[in-house]
Amino acid sequence: MNHPIFLQWNCRGFKVNFNELSLLIQNHYPVAMCLQETYLKETDTININNYMMYNCYAQTDKASGASSIAVNSRYFHSQINLKTNIPGAAIRISLHKTTTLCSVYIPPN
Question: How confident is the model at residue 99 (pLDDT cuts 50, 70, 90)?
């Protein structure tokens, strides 16, 4: 197995920068991606081919901040429920050893 690639990106809007994210996936084919400032709302439908999405949404009426993890579906993984007020998503993924990924967004204020 080649070295796994993990991507971390402050995307400043998942939907408006989806084409750029698609290029990153094509070029690097990451095992998982930690994304911050996704600006996603619970009502948004998000789909990346061959990836499972785990989203943490902003706790406001408008889309702001928030974070997500996208993990390649071919890897065994499970979601971890965080017990914190900091918006974030977390997973445990099995590669050659079990790894935990956490994607958080800490607002500037």
Answer: very high
Size (the chain), residues: 109
Tell me how many helices (H) and strands (E) the chain has.
1, 7
Q: Check: CB of residue 69 under 8 Å from CB of residue 104.
A: no
> Residues 31-66: pLDDT tens digits?
999 999 998 888 888 899 999 999 988 766 666 788
Query: Exposed/middle/buried for 24, CB within 10 Å: 0-12, 13-18, 19+?
Result: middle
Output the six-digit token pair for 58: 């902003």
- Give the phi and the psi of residue 19 in degrees, each rounded to 5: -65, -40
Distance CA 16, CA 98 (A): 33
Q: State the pLDDT at residue 62.
A: 62
The burial of 94, by beta-carbon neighbours within 10 Å (0-12 exposed, 13-18 middle, 19 or more buried), is given as exposed
Token pair recorded at residue 4: 């796994």
